[in-house]
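dude i think i finally got it to work??
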Amino acid sequence: MLDTIQVNYQHTSNAFMASKILKEIQQHDLIACDFEVAIKYTEAELQAFKDELATNPSKLRRIEVESKLAATALDHASHCRITHCSIATNDHTAYVFIIDNKKLQDLILNFLVTTQIKQVWHNASFDFRHIYYNTGRIPINYEDTQIFAKCILNHVDTYKANTGLKELVQCYGQWGISSDNFTVDRMYDEHVIKYAATDACATYYL
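look at this
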């Protein structure tokens, strides 16, 4: 039984502080990254969409409104916003950027698509669609640990080829949290921030 790894992390939503942290991160040869995202619509906006449906809008508008009401954080990036970017520099140290303003988002995304540092992501196709949607680019130098794991664990029985991060890496304890936590209102919650940091560290470990 592996000992539980304790994650140390710092977090900020300040672009100036984030810039200083990114300069420190640039000194590393390998980093592991992860996003947390949430639906961008507020409760008031969602209620307004419901009210609009009651007015019998045009067919195209109805389709648009219904897609917004049905959207989840796993849907198209146009329905979502990035709430956190976590970057781990080893298996127990991470920085979490709480992205609550466009200046910080632009800073982080520009770093991710321009740095030459090797980036490791788990299920990069999810995170990269947010990067591409917002920048039109993807990182230069990266690997996907989920694809790597899938190649090793390939099996006709799906349950024998589970490549979820929490199934593959169990030395951080039970760090998963409910999907209800991934909202704009809870982006400053310490549990969510620690979860984001642990995801990045676990990716680095993997």
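Residues 16 and 104 are 9 Å apart (CA to CA).
im so relieved honestly
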